Every structure is written in C-alpha cells, then in structure tokens.
Amino acid sequence: MDQEPPLSHGFSANEPNPVSRPARRRQIWVWIVVLVPFGLLFYWVIHQHGKAQAATTGGGRHAMTGPVPVTIATAQKGSIGVYLGAIGTVTPIYTASITAQVTGVITAVHYREGQYVKKGDPLVDIDPRPYAAQLTEAQGLLDRDKNLLAEAEMDLERYRQAWAKNAIPRQTLEDQEKIVAQDQGTVKNDEGTVQYDQVELSYCHITSPINGRLGLRLVDPGNLVTANSTTTLVVVTQVQPITVIFTLSEDNLPQVLQNSKGGKQLSVEAYDRTQQSLLAKGKLGTIDNMINTTTGTVNLRAQFDNKNASLFPNQFVNTRLLVTTLNDQVLIPSSAIQHNGSTDFVYLIKDGKASMQNVKVGQADQGNTAVQGINAGDVVANSSFEKLQNGSEITISKVKLPSASDSPENNVP
C-alpha cells in the first residue's frame, strides 16, 4: 500500500498553527485597550446626564438636606407712581443765529467760546465810521430843513397879519401856507432818514438778544461781512431754562389729558442714555395740538430749570412722565416675585418655613412692585429660589451691609 506523505514542517492538518496564537493574543489586548476607555467615557456621560436631568426635574431639591439659607424682605405699605417712558430730545426755548445786517469790516470780537452771556452783552463790533458819516450828513440836512420851515412859518405869520389889514391878496396867504406844509414834509422825511441811519449805526455794535450760552467763534477781527448774508457771526442758545420734546402713543394721551386737567402740571424726569443717572426734574409744559397720523404719536414739551447745566441742547434723554400716584399699596422688591407660567407667587416666610403664596402683580417702579394677596408686614424670601419649595425649612442669611471702608472713594490710591 502506498503511504500518505507527511505534511510539511511535521504538523498534521487538524492541528492549529502555533505561530498564529501570539498574534491573536495581541489582537485581544488591543481590543481591551480600545474598548475599556470608551466604556468608561460612556459611563461618565450617562452619569452626568442623569445628574443634569435630576437637577432639571427638581431632584436636586429633594437631595438637599437641612434648612435653606435665604435673604428676606418685608412687605410695606406705601405709594408708587405710574410712569410713561419715552425718548426725548433736549430743545432750547430760544436759539439766536446772529448774522450781519450791515456791510463792513469786523473790528472786535468781545466774546469767548462757550461763554454765558446776558441780554445786551457785547458780542461783535463792525467798523461804524461809514454809517456815522451818513448819520452826520442826515442830521445836517434835517437841521437845514428845520430852519427853512421856521423861516416859512414866520413869513406865514406876517402874511396873516397883512391879509387881516387887506394889504395882500388871499392867494399870497394860501401859497405861503402850502410852502409851510411842504417844508414840514421835508423835515419829517429828514427825521426818518436820521432814524434809519441811527439804526444802521447801531447794527455795527452787535449785542446778545437773549440770555444764553455762546458756541464756537465763527469770525475774527478783520473779516469782511456783508449785510443780510447767510454767514453766521455767533450762535446764542438759551440753556436755563431748557425744554425736552418727547413723544407718546396716542393710546396714552387720554390718561395724560385726564390727569392734567385744571392746570395741574405733571412731573417729568430726564435720565441719561443708560436710564441709570437722573439728570433733571421738570414739569410738563404743553401738548401738541394734533396727533401724527403716520406714527400714531403726539409730541409733548417739558420744561426744566437746568440750573446745573446737566441737559445739553440736542441731547437724547430718556423721559419718565409721572401720570398719577397710587397710594396705600403693598410693596415688595420685584426680585422676590416668582413666575410659573401665567401665575405669579412669592415664598412667605413664617415659623422658619417657606410657603408658596399666589399674588397679583400691579405697578412696578424703581425695583419695587405693588402686589395683592399678601399684607403689609409679611416676610417673603428674596433669594435661593432654585432651592426652595413649598414647606422648605429655611434659615435667614445675614447680609453684610456696606460700610464706609467699602466705599470706592476710600479705595482710590
């Protein structure tokens, strides 16, 4: 019988190749090294997601143990204003852009840029000599014609006496009367010329027509100016008092008109652009006589004393018009009010526990809100709302009050 030849390398066909075993072990370790970190990362992600979901669903509240530290506020009874806010523009009552009314060379500029002047203070001088000469000439003609009139009046008186004695005909008397009337007209014309030249001469000395603040210097000595030109010599703007023009919706107009009846002046406050700094307090002056049909708004003007010059012409400000004041209101900090959909509530603090109490929110102003549903003297929570729930035990946190040492002025090097 023929014998089956042996396999190469002395291994049988059913026996695994020993050379592949180390490779398989390496593959197994590679998979272990790769999969273990991914498994740990997957576990960490699932754990963090569970913690976030528990915090979202309120699981964190139930996980807390012990009383919740909160700051408190006490409801107080007081008054709160009903305000209407709007953007306004600071507008001077009077602004005078002064131009030359005569032609000539500027000889002097008496003002300083930004200077406050009073009515009648000197501003600019124009060379007056040509106009002074014209005035002298006109006065000379007036004096001559006055003397001619006096001579004619004396002749008229003689003619009247002569005609009374039938020494002259009546026509001679009547002719002399007309000569006197002509001379009177000439004198009146001369007087008008003198007055006109006096006005022209006065235009050479320009004074301030109003009390106000001057702008930048626009002309210098030696500049030639012409009569009735568009070149402005100086601008005077009245800043004390000053007004603010602002707009309100036509829907708010009936409320304003109702509360301003009987000559009552409503208060207006002007704040800066950030609405943090109060610039000035004034009174509502007037309401425009018609509504702008394009915008559905009406213009209002408020007047301010502006004694500290905090309002500047053409400045944009935020205005608050006090329409009315609500008295005997229960007031709490606006930050103490919580919201759950359309429901407003507060946490009442009593006997060391917090209890939810629904309230009806009213007018809000300056960080306080008028509410209904609690009484004056009730204590409400004003912090730690993410930890509070109905029936939570609480402890009152002690808040450090600011001291003089904490003042920024004391920290200035």
Describe this protein's structure.
The protein has 413 residues and is an alpha+beta fold. Among the domains are: 31 residues; 81 residues, conserved putative lor/sdh protein from methanococcus maripaludis s2 fold; 76 residues, Helix Hairpins, CATH 1.10.287. Helices cover 28% and strands 33% of the residues. A hairpin with a 6-residue loop joins strand 13 and strand 14. The radius of gyration is 47 Å and the shape is elongated. The N terminus and C terminus are likely disordered.
Top keywords for this entry?
Helix Hairpins; conserved putative lor/sdh protein from methanococcus maripaludis s2 fold; 413 residues; 6-stranded antiparallel β-barrel; 5 helices
Give the number of DSSP strands. 22
Oligomer: single chain
Range of helix content: 25-40%
- What coarse outline follows from CA principal-axis ratios? elongated
* Unreliable spans: 1-16, 54-64, 400-413
Q: In what range is the share of β-strand residues?
A: 25-35%
Mean pLDDT: 85
Class based on secondary structure composition and strand pairing: alpha+beta
Return Rg in Å. Answer: 47 Å
Quick one: CATH class of the domain at 68-78 and 327-396?
Mainly Beta
- Tell me the strand order in the biggest sheet: 3-12-15-14-13-16
The sequence of SSEs as H and E is HHEEEEEEEHHEEEEEHEEEEEEEEEE
What CATH calls the topology of the domain at 68-78 and 327-396 is: conserved putative lor/sdh protein from methanococcus maripaludis s2 fold
- Identify the CATH architecture of the domain at 68-78 and 327-396: Beta Barrel
Q: Count the helices. How many? A: 5
The biggest sheet, with number of strands, parallel, antiparallel or mixed sense and barrel status, is:
6 strands, antiparallel, barrel
Question: What separation lies between the terminal Cα atoms?
Answer: 115 Å
